[in-house]
Design a protein that fits this description.
The chain is of the alpha/beta class. The chain has a single domain, classed as Ribonuclease H-like superfamily/Ribonuclease H (Nucleotidyltransferase, domain 5, 2-Layer Sandwich). About 40% of the residues lie in helices and about 15% in strands.
Length: about 230
């Protein structure tokens, strides 16, 4: 099963009031495990950067001016996502921004199904903090690299959190590594040393010792059979 973990950073909280996406990241999962395939881009929002938003992600208007607008990255992003379900923390927020950008670029809204890990966490841990930071701490996921919010960093953290929310990776159930599998494939009966067959018939000495042992057993059932 292919899924895509997605995260965005923006200039604010509401796309309907003119706020824009400034960073998009996505990670491909197969059967809930990252494959190594990633999508990441910074986006020129073609507007100013409010101080409150800058304090969250640290992406300045001057930095983003060197990157293309969303319309230039939309094809690559949509091709990466394909028709796979999305995995998003607080999905309503990110999907609203992505659909607003798609509308500006003359594209249809996202049609893929999605899993909202925020709702998943609230159902699993009612009343407990459910932010990405709180979930990482709950599951002992390293937050050292997360000095500020960043779509690429947060995407990787969310992929780990998602696995834990689904029940976690079960230790000891890993399949053989590729190296082990190759080694087993190369093994054949021809590689095994030839040993002489083991004797199966008892020697006279063994038979004598066996009779002596039986003689020490009183009321043996085989003696009562007659």
């Amino acid at each position: 099963m292919r899924e895509i973990v997605v995260d965005t950073e923006t200039t604010g909280l509401d796309p309907q009031s003119g706020h824009r996406i400034v960073e998009i990241a996505a990670i491909e999962l197969m059967h809930h495990v990252p494959t190594g395939r990633r999508f990441h881009c910074y986006v020129n929002p073609e507007r100013d950067m409010p101080p409150d938003a800058y304090a969250v992600h640290g992406l300045s208007e001057e930095f983003l001016a060197g990157y293309p607008p969303f319309a230039a990255a939309v094809d690559e992003f949509l091709a990466f996502v394909g028709d796979a379900p999305l995995v998003i923390h607080n999905a309503e927020f990110d999907i609203a921004f992505l659909n607003a950008e798609l509308a500006r670029a003359g594209r249809p809204f996202l049609a893929a199904n999605y899993v909202d890990t925020l709702l998943l966490a609230r159902r699993r841990f009612p009343g407990a903090p459910a932010s990405l930071d709180a979930l990482c701490r709950r599951f002992a996921i390293d937050l050292a690299a997360r000095e500020k919010h960043g779509a690429e960093i947060d995407c990787g953290l969310l992929a780990d959190v998602y696995v834990e929310l689904l029940g976690g990776r079960q230790p000891g159930l890993d399949f053989a590594t590729a190296e082990t599998a190759r080694a087993l494939d190369l093994m054949s009966f021809e590689d095994r040393p030839i040993r002489p067959p083991r004797p199966h018939a008892a020697t006279p000495e063994e038979l004598s010792a066996h009779r002596a042992l039986l003689a020490t057993i009183s009321n043996a059932m085989w003696n009562l059979a007659g």
